[in-house]
Amino acid sequence: MKTKLILSAICIVSLSSLFVACSDDDNDTTKPVIVINEPTDGGAIKTGSLLHLDMDLSDDVMVASYKVDIHNKFDGHTHTSASTRAVGDSITFTYNQSFDVNQKNHHVHDHIEIPILARQGKYHVVVYCTDTSGNESYVAKSVVFDANAEEDVD
């Protein structure tokens, strides 16, 4: 009788721990969705103006945060970290900023100042998004910094 009681208690404890371990966040393996409306891939950004960042972030459970990383791709890389160094009278521009969200859907409209002395050439604009379960996705756009580009008015 004692053995049956002990086995029953073990079964109940085991089943209870199984249900506790299966919370919604533990089962969330879906990565957040990032839709970048601006800048457009291959677009030109005038140095000394504002880069318009317009995007929508969403997740089936909750977006926790996002990060915007802008760095040069002068060496043709596909997402290694950039360094800041001077070339003549220009500077190699980098931007790296993180933001907390804690919403299921989040719209971002931001303006990032591109210095007039930013070195002209190809850059990556990469957005990383993480949900509350730690799932991460990213989207990258290639842009060109050009002193002769038309300034985008937004």
Salient structural properties:
two-stranded antiparallel ribbon; 154 residues; single chain; Immunoglobulin-like; 6-stranded mixed β-sheet; alpha+beta; elongated
List strands and helices in order, with pairings:
Blueprint lengths: L1 H20 L2 H4 L5 E6 L4 E4 L3 E23 L13 E2 L2 E2 L3 E19 L7 E11 L4 E11 L8
Parallel strand pairs: 2-8
Antiparallel strand pairs: 1-3, 3-6, 3-7, 4-5, 7-8
InterPro entries: DUF4625 (IPR027829)
Pfam family, one: DUF4625
Organism: Bacteroides graminisolvens DSM 19988 = JCM 15093
Question: What this model shows, in words?
Answer:
Mean pLDDT is 82; it is low at 13-24 and 79-87. The strands form 2 sheets. Strands 1, 2, 3, 6, 7 and 8 form a 6-stranded mixed beta sheet that branches. A two-stranded antiparallel sheet has the order 4-5. A hairpin with a 2-residue loop joins strand 4 (86-87) and strand 5 (90-91). The chain has a single domain (28-146), classed as Immunoglobulins (Immunoglobulin-like). With 154 residues, it is an alpha+beta fold. It has helices at 2-21, 24-27, and strands spanning 33-38, 43-46, 50-72, 86-87, 90-91, 95-113, 121-131, 136-146. Helix content is 16%, strand content 51%. Residues 1-23 form the signal peptide. It comes from Bacteroides graminisolvens DSM 19988 = JCM 15093. Pfam families: DUF4625. InterPro entries: DUF4625 (IPR027829).
